[in-house]
Write a structure and sequence with these properties.
The chain has twelve helices and 21 strands. The chain starts with a strand and ends with a strand.
Length: 455
């Protein structure tokens, strides 16, 4: 683990920079992020694991995921998101994309069977994990039966030909027409099928912005009638208005982009403070944002070390994503530091024993988050501007105050310890040891600390 290098006394207290206009002793958040509008609840404890079946081998991958559920659970995961497990299109245009769906109610035979799905869901539920499927409502493959049986369910051009989704370069899929009430009803029926057939708990809805919000409201209402309050719905969208359609969680796209700018372009960490505040302030009670450093789209274009310099850099970025606010997501193989570009158009025989120390560090970070009410999504935050490279903030609630400092650069940095945490005893939550702090703190390149004030 790359963490603190050393803490040492200095002759005088350096000037403490605080982002915004709050004082360090202002536990109401002052001029930084105001107290969260969300009362602490189950949504704030969510940790998502995005499982791409193709990362788990070349065949019988549903069974392979089931076999790894203990390892996934050890990461603090309580929501397992399965990327599309449906039968894929088999036309020249489909090019092997799992998002080109031939049959919404059939399992991709390369992944397994319906019985394998049921076994996976049952095993996940036994470990306290919800299971959500990736749902693609906007389009189908060109060999989906709907193309010939219900051509009126698709968008047509001026020549009466079925079109691809407008504004996209997705030649492998045909655009569905949501003005057609019969298509909408069948789409909802297909979504209901998996809840009744396999007892899944909800959906991550792909390209949610490409589907009318009133469809999502209708679909979620019908799904909730089946699943009740256990239903969990994640929208691949940053649009806060989708909360009104019934989604529980939205993406934190802006935060991801700012995080990449901080690491790749050496931009100031103040971008993260602004993004975190603006994204969370748009939430209503009982809703949250998903935070991540990697996903299937990103990893298909860039490697984790392209994005964050090194595996140590990626780890430090994940500490920020997991502790600054919102709910963290881990992409399958991220926890073992799998390097290189990994396209979701092909399968991999992943060596899950790779980098065991790296994986254990992930487990420890998630254990620290899981045991802390302040670090979960609804804890309050005060930001400290100490320099452009070190993200430094306090997460707190009525129970505890926790200081997080993360060096986003590969060069060691010395920062001023915020007054509340200086010259006192704190618990290093990553090691469990008690530390007597000084007025300054030295961080290795990509180093970080998570300190709890001993009160």
């Amino acid at each position: 683990m790359k963490s603190i290098n050393k803490i040492f006394l200095t002759a005088c207290l350096l000037s403490l920079g605080i982002w915004g206009c709050s004082s360090d002793n202002d536990d109401n958040g002052g001029g930084s992020n105001p107290p969260s509008v969300n009362a602490p609840g189950e949504i704030d404890k969510v940790v998502i694991y995005e499982a791409y079946p193709g990362m788990f081998g070349t065949s019988n991958t549903l069974k392979a995921i089931t076999a790894r559920l203990d390892n996934i659970e050890a990461l603090g995961v309580n929501v397992l998101w399965l990327m599309p497990i449906f039968e894929q299109g088999n036309t020249p245009e489909s090019i092997g994309s799992p998002y080109s769906i031939k049959d919404f109610t059939a399992v991709n035979p390369a992944y397994g069977t319906l019985e394998d799905v049921k076994a996976l869901v049952t095993a996940a539920h036994a470990r306290g994990m919800k299971v959500i499927f990736d749902w693609i409502a906007n389009h189908t493959s060109w060999d989906n039966a709907w193309i010939t049986e219900h051509p009126d369910w698709y968008t047509k051009d001026e020549n009466g030909e079925i079109t691809t989704p407008p504004g996209q370069d997705w030649e492998d899929v045909a655009d569905l027409d949501f003005d057609n009430t019969d298509m909408r009803a069948e789409m909802i029926a297909c979504m209901k099928y998996w809840i009744t057939a396999a007892d899944i708990d909800g959906y991550r809805c792909d390209y949610a912005d490409g589907v009318p919000s009133d469809f999502w409201a209708d679909a979620i209402a019908e799904l909730k009638a089946l699943k009740g309050d256990d239903l969990f719905m994640l929208a691949e969208s940053a649009d806060a208005s989708l909360q009104n359609s019934g989604f529980d969680m939205l993406y934190g796209w802006d935060f991801l982009y700012r995080l990449q700018e901080v690491y790749k372009d050496s931009k100031s960490v103040s971008l993260l403070y602004t993004s975190n505040t603006s994204e969370l302030q748009t939430l209503t009670e009982g809703k949250q944002r998903m935070r991540h450093i990697l996903n299937h789209d990103v990893n298909s274009l860039e490697s984790v070390t392209d994005l964050y310099h090194s595996l140590d850099g990626a780890m430090s970025a994940y500490v920020i994503a997991a502790t600054m606010g919102g709910c963290p997501m881990i992409y399958s193989s991220q926890e073992i530091g799998a390097e290189g570009i990994r396209s979701f158009y092909r399968n991999y025989n992943t060596d899950w024993s790779e980098n065991p120390d790296y994986r254990r560090e992930y487990e420890k970070i998630m254990a620290v988050r899981g045991e802390s009410t302040a670090l979960q999504a609804s804890g309050n935050i005060t930001y400290y501007y100490v320099n452009d490279a070190v993200a430094c903030y306090k997460r707190y609630d009525g129970n505890e105050s926790i200081l997080v400092a993360v060096n986003t650069s590969g060069t060691g940095k010395t920062i001023t310890v915020p007054a509340q945490f200086a010259l006192t005893e704190v618990r290093d939550l990553m090691t469990g040891s008690t530390v007597a702090t000084s007025t300054t703190l030295e961080l290795d390149g990509f180093g970080y600390i998570i300190f709890k004030l001993e009160e």
